[in-house]
Write a structure and sequence with these properties.
Distance between the termini: 10 Å
Number of helices: 11
Shape: elongated
Length: about 280
Amino acid sequence: MKFMLLDIIVSCQFIHILFISCIDVHADMDTPLFRARPDPEDTSVLTLQHRHRSSTIRVDPDMGSVLTCRHRMLREWVLDDRVRPYIIQSGFYVFHRVGHVKVDWPLITALVERWRLETHTFHMPVGEMTITLQDVAILFGLRVHGHPVTGSTDIDWHALCEELLGVRPAETNIRGAFLTVRFITTHFSRLPPGVVDEVTLQHHARAYLLLLVSGSLFTDKKGVYIQLAILPMLRDFGETAQYSWGSATLAHLYRELCRASLDSAESIAGPLHLLQV
């Protein structure tokens, strides 16, 4: 589906070039061949057009700025072979192997301008299309059925980090239900030298998964903090694999696309590499 989407985008760009050429050639004629509209002609379904990014582009094409975001990727974290079995058991090994994907911000912005909040689909000149659960399952290898990814945030996060990660964060490392990325990279980017017991290996596996999931799937826009809400779901690696991470990932992507499609948005977060892989 992704290859089809990119092919269509390239085709649409080519058609757009041809269209501009036609308009230039026939500029001196009384009646143009046809007229392009960046916004929908019929707003009976697309009722939020007045708040959509495309509405500002119609007024002034130069008003549409390119969206950006600071994404926290595991570029320099080498996964130790002793930790790998826990990542496999958790069900995230396929997603781990996807690796770092450089975000093409102009492409993402162009797609966001075609995204509609009302239908959760991209409105292309050739029709509607969207990202599906099947895409998430095939591209990321994430489970799309099972336990819902939800839980309580009324937790003593300092105590939970000490229990599941083996290190108690300082007050400056936690803000609400968010943990600084620096805390994870400082304490867990490498295993201690010598023989390492199983408990320590599990601590490092949870830290890696916490940064992998929160930093790549459920990202924030600053790239400084990661969500601790998923940490309780990493207690038992076998149970971790039973959660519907794919459904939560797709829902998060939809929400971020909807937010970014508003005319006031300047940035976008979420698993944007789903739009490129």
